[in-house]
Specification:
Elements lengths: L1 E5 L7 H13 L6 E6 L1 H11 L5 E5 L6 H4 L9 H6 L7 E2 L10 E4 L5 E2 L8 E4 L4 H4 L7 H14 L3 E4 L2 H11 L6 E3 L26 E4 L8 H8 L8 E4 L11 H12 L8 E5 L3 H9 L3 E4 L9 H9 L3 E4 L2 H10 L4 E3 L4 H13 L1 H11 L8 H12 L11
Parallel strand pairs: 1-2, 1-5, 2-3, 4-6, 5-7, 7-8, 8-9, 10-11, 10-13, 11-12, 13-14, 14-15
Helix pairs in contact: 1-15, 8-13
Length: about 400
């Protein structure tokens, strides 16, 4: 049986991590071969991440419409809103029939932005990660409309679709009127395979300090405005470290990076003293930063299946201060963990949660460490087994751990 993994995005962070970890576990199946189909940077990223990890071949099939090369004003910083205003094609990838041919099954680990030949959807499984652009269209002008159109087509097709939380399933019913059972709920795991140790380790200027880590990209739903206001009172004692795509605030010329930097500075935070913008780092560097953190804060307003960083903090016994939204409650409850909750709409709520953590840090830290021994662990083998059933893969498996 030949399975093709088709992805023209390879979304940095949780998206591509999910793809790699699930594929690593799926690769246990006897009699199944895997091909990764993509183009450009997306295919290159998969080649690098899967090298020596998954026995897969790679096929370069350009999309029918590579928007970065054909969009009006493509490549000019800040031109996105004008492209939307002029109704030029953007954030929409037309998958050619060739990407779905010559295989028994095609898996799209990131269905967002992908529009497939719908007559071929019967051989397709797709992973829907979140509904943020649809649920909060004001954050993503134009993109939300295209996302809605794309997801409507996926849901109306014969493709098998999986989501990673009951909260997302409920949102689908609210936003699209989907029938019960239209999608499969397959929760994710936070037990990522650790990268090999490298001889050289980068030193960070905040090492040795009691820093608060916020591992999130700069998308509006990550809620950096409330984060800035909520942490301002204690940033002198617990400097804020930002990791994730775009968070290199003092090196990036991107408008969003400049906006977030100004938000932080308006709250009195100072570069190199109470604020550190790290940017995107590989897993090895990230885990070293995480393991040295005083605590993790996740102020997000919306997610699809939860938060890998929060799960990883719980796994390591690191206190986490987390926005009280349904999907995060679902993830933490499923794991049997404990975090400090706050209302992500109000900075004062975050400030109170941080003050409670600071006042009773040893108690919260001891509790977090104790829970590492009793967390209900869902592994990537569990995730892969659920996907294997959805895909109809053979049940015969090798014994390698994922």
């Amino acid at each position: 049986m030949k399975v093709r993994i088709v992805d023209y995005v390879a979304n940095l962070g949780g998206g591509v991590r999910f793809s790699v970890e699930t594929l690593r576990a799926l690769a246990d199946h006897r009699g199944v071969s895997f091909e990764v189909v993509g183009h450009g940077d997306a295919l290159r990223r998969y080649r690098e991440l899967l090298a020596g990890v998954v026995p897969a071949t790679f096929v370069d099939i350009p999309p029918r419409q590579a928007w970065r090369g054909r969009t009006l004003l493509a490549g000019i910083p800040g031109a996105g809103p004008l492209n939307w205003l002029l109704r030029t094609n953007s954030f929409r990838i037309l998958v050619p029939p060739a990407a779905l041919e010559d295989c028994d099954l095609a898996w799209f680990p990131w269905i967002h932005r992908h529009q497939i030949p719908w007559s071929m959807a019967g051989r397709v499984v797709g992973s829907l990660h979140d509904l943020i652009a649809v649920d909060f269209p004001d954050w993503f002008p134009g993109w939300g409309l295209v996302e809605r159109e794309t997801l409507e087509a996926w849901l109306a097709s014969e493709a098998r679709v999986a989501v990673s939380s009951h909260a997302t399933d409920a949102s689908l019913a609210r936003l699209f009127g989907t029938r019960t059972g239209r999608v499969s709920v397959i929760p994710l795991s936070g037990q990522h395979v650790l990268p090999p140790e490298r001889a050289e380790t980068r030193g960070w200027p905040f090492q040795g300090r009691h820093y608060l880590l916020c591992p999130a990209n700069l998308s509006p739903h990550k809620n950096h405005a409330v984060l800035a206001a909520g942490i301002a009172g204690m940033a002198g004692r617990h400097p804020l470290v930002l990791t994730g795509d775009g968070t290199d605030l003092y090196e990036s010329a991107a408008p969003r990076a400049q906006e977030v930097r100004q938000l932080m500075e308006q709250q009195g935070m100072v570069r190199g003293e109470s604020l550190f913008g790290v940017g995107y780092v590989d897993d090895g560097q990230y885990y070293r930063i995480l393991e040295g953190a005083w605590a993790v804060v996740m102020p997000t307003l919306a997610e699809g299946g939860g938060s890998f960083p929060v799960w990883e903090a719980m796994e390591r016994g690191i206190p986490a201060v987390v926005s009280d939204i349904p999907v995060m409650r679902e993830m933490v409850d499923r794991a049997g963990g404990e975090v400090l909750w706050f209302d992500p709409k109000f900075p004062d709520s975050l400030s109170r949660a941080l003050a409670e953590l600071e006042a009773n840090y040893e108690r919260h830290c001891s509790r977090a460490r104790a829970l590492t021994h009793v967390l209900r662990s869902r592994t990537w083998r569990d995730v892969a087994a659920d996907y294997a059933r959805l895909m109809g893969l053979p049940a015969d498996k090798m014994g390698r751990d994922s």
